[in-house]
């Protein structure tokens, strides 16, 4: 659910969910970005981009699985995103490089690899002052570089990322908090589907909870990559690739704990 400002978000939540539940749901809002191609009125945001070369510190080893290099899919420039994220960015990791196993590897080679385990993905931070352009080794697929404009938004979670303890609801009318959100906010739901996004909340559906829970709450959403015909990548039938990280790891800047999931129909 996307909103241009926090005032309208709070108003809509209160009008639809009531005073208490509305305030509880509004408190779950996170700041994030919709990642789009730049225009004259919306220039590229820092060094944010899809594809292209990685921006890594000298001496950084290119990630691989069983000798097969992962593909660089995106770079986020958190210095350029920091002003909007504010306290929601507790560390300044600089550049974040997002790698994933190329889904279009030859079948015989692909079937020998773990396409869903931790060796299939990687998020590597880099100091912008030290980062150098690093070409992917053969046979990693090299996608063309596409600069990105990060459009600032305030996001609410999909109903399936809300737990019963998050929002007060009438147990005689609803089987759970998700039921309340779905019935009262449903026409605003899922409107980041099919797009690239960073931070905030991911688009999800009833078949997948992207932001797993821990003691500190839902995991932090880092990046959502949809199918992109121009770049020639896809994640199965109407698929989306999500990168998340536990809250504690994000707070300490330990991006080795970032995880990735593909969801498709």
From TrEMBL:
SUPFAM superfamilies: Hypothetical protein YwqG (SSF103032). InterPro entries: DUF1963 (IPR015315), YwqG-like_sf (IPR035948). This is DUF1963 domain-containing protein. It comes from Actinacidiphila glaucinigra.
């Amino acid at each position: 659910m996307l909103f241009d400002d926090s005032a309208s978000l709070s108003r809509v939540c209160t009008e639809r969910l009531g005073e208490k539940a509305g305030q509880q749901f509004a408190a779950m809002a996170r700041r994030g970005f919709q990642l789009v191609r730049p225009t004259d009125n919306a220039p590229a945001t820092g060094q944010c981009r899809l594809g292209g070369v990685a921006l890594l510190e000298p001496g950084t080893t290119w990630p691989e699985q069983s000798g097969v290099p992962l593909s660089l899919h995106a770079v986020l420039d958190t210095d350029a995103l920091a002003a909007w994220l504010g306290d929601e960015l507790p560390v300044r990791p600089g550049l974040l490089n997002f790698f994933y196993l190329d889904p279009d590897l030859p079948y015989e080679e692909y079937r020998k690899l773990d396409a869903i385990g931790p060796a299939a993905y990687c998020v590597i931070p880099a100091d912008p002052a030290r980062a150098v352009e690093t070409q992917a080794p053969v046979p990693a697929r090299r996608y063309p570089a596409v600069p990105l404009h990060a459009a600032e938004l305030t996001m609410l979670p999909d109903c399936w990322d809300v737990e019963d303890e998050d929002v007060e609801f009438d147990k005689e009318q609803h089987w759970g908090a998700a039921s309340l959100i779905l019935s009262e906010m449903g026409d605003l739901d899922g409107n980041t589907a099919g797009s690239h996004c960073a931070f905030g909340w991911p688009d999800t559906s009833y078949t997948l909870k992207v932001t797993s829970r821990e003691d500190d709450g839902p995991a932090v959403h880092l990046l959502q990559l949809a199918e992109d015909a121009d770049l020639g990548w896809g994640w199965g039938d109407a698929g989306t690739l999500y990168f998340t990280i536990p809250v504690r790891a994000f707070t300490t800047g330990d991006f080795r704990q970032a995880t990735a999931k593909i969801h498709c129909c």
